[in-house]
Amino acid sequence: MLVGSYNPLFVVLSILVAILASFTALDMASRVSATQPRRTAARWLLAGGVAMGAGIWSMHFVGMLAFRLPIPLGYDLWLTLESLLVAVAASLFALWLVSRATLPHLRLALGALLMGLGIAWMHYVGMSALRMQPAIDYDRVWFVLSIVIAVGASWSALYIAFRLRTVEHALLPRLIASVVMGLAIVGMHYTGMAAARFPADAVCGAAASGGVPTEWLAACVVLLTVGVMAIVLIFSLQEQRMQSRLLHLRNSMLAASLDDARKELFHASQHDALTRLPNRQLSHERIEQLLQDGNAFAVMSIDLDGFRHINGAFGSPVGDAVLMDIAERLRRMLPPEDLVGRLGGDQFVIATTLKTANEVDAYAERIILAVNSARGGGRDLRITGSLGMALHPDHGNSPAQLIAMAETAMRYAKQAGHNTHTVFADWMNDNVEQDRHLLEDLRKAIGTSQLSLHYQPRVHAENGHVSGAEALIRWRHPEHGYVPSERIIRLAEQNGLMSVLGTWILEEACRQMRCWQDAGYHDWIISVNVSDRQLGSQQLLDDVRSALERNELEPARLTLEISESAMMRDTETTIAVLRNVAALGVGISIDNFGTGVSSLLHLKRLPASEIKIDRAFVLTLEESDEDVVIVSAIVALGHALNLSVVAAGIETPAQRAYVERLGCDQLQGVLLGRAVSAESFIRLHGGSARQAALDARLSSFHNTPE
Q1: Which one of 16, 42, 187, 457 has the largest count of C-beta atoms within 10 Å of its C-beta?
Q2: Separation CA 52–CA 49 (nearest Å)
Q3: Is 554 exposed, middle or buried (0-12, 13-18, 19+ CB in 10 A)?
């Protein structure tokens, strides 16, 4: 047997190379784990695998160079390169394994087995690069022991690398671990060398056939290994410094971002996400500040009229655009010290300090005009709002109480006809004493400028031209603002005032119709609602005749609207009164048609000229097939009895399209126009009516035979 020896210098060098390779492996493991972008992590994995594999391979061949035999030695180039590739592949696998999020025991064991076999493969392929003849004989015990050591060393390396990969400032633990791993790898190599048995007559085939000389191999191995690992470690150190600077900069930026985020989060918690106005919480706090100042101020609640129909007809993006436009208009219009907030949905709140009580009305009118000017997504929409006001200290001493009072007043403003404002009053609590005071005020208001009529247009479905208007009563109380029409009628009917009030309404409506007729609107018809109490009295006939005569108005220019419920109370008396009125030439319209249970039994006996479909059916046409069938049946019934059919309560273009398609003759609703004063009515609808009359005359002229 050939007896080998070792060069102590190369043995020490092999140990140092193994420790350096281990340190490189641990550093690369932490670098791969800490890198977030996949491409960067993949580059570090590749660089680390090459450096670690070259280090392990270099340690092996430095150890081989330390071994001396009494014969010339050389190494086969391709087998040497194969052993290098095996070392790099095993190292890549090891780094990939320890860069995973978890490393269970079973995966660690399998990984250690594969890596250990890879290192053993690298060692014994490197040994075969000598191409000894006859072949090297290996002692089985030492051979198995070397593989066990390789697997154990791999297990230790993987475990230590996984544990230390995320530890910051772990230079000393990493150096200690590198020494342990390096010695384990060296132990495997020299155990494998101890297993080798060289026959006495053996020769090195690689040296005889011109293999790589040991001197050249030593120089290449040392230069390659040290160069690769040095470059990788230098780059790692530079990147670590750069990352430290970036981390410091990132921490500074993160601190600033967290501070900004905290401020933004605090702002978002107190402001509406859509309009960026103060939300309910901040609005309460701002009103609380006004309370602490001790000055008189007003809280206003604004709610858009029919906003859900805007969302339904045009979609929520248009609705959101309307809300943002209104918010911006109010913000620009009002002083910075005033509160403009959004309580939710389409409801806004305003709080402002008042210099004098007379400022309230003018201030409210400016706000309503701002709401009327709003647009949504470039669409020309008719936006209106109802505004309720509560005053401090008259109506409350807390934010919740003042907002509640303003919301109550806002609801009464809606009942009063929309697009108006009302100041909260005690009578809105609806008790007997307050009704008594309000009734006294109503008695005094009849015949004064407090009472007025507003007019809502009715149009022909065929051409869209205005056919007339419905007269609706409005009462602007000197202290409480607008009082809802329903409350006026209820007070008058319950207290015997309806006869006087009804006479005034008839007279005023006929007077206005006379004015319009003198202005050239000869085809218009004025509609007046008649209450239950008026129908039960013969005085209605005298009131109608007197109003027509005093204003020299043709009876055909007047239509009385009666409800089904009023007709059912005293059918015989009602029919008798209405027949006498109809005999004058006045039109009779059955309002809210379709809601009575007995109307069809008496319809043929009534001298009606038209029926008015209840708005409840019109509002649900888009959602209810049953209501479509009902409206279609009412239209068919009306036309069969030669009655004109009016669709009331139209609020959306889709509803208008439905009733036109179903055959209604006339249309009425907020989509076509809200109830406004006589002056505003002419300004809004007079021009189109004059043009329609002119077109009719021209058509008649051209069709006259010569």
Answers
A1: 457
A2: 5
A3: middle
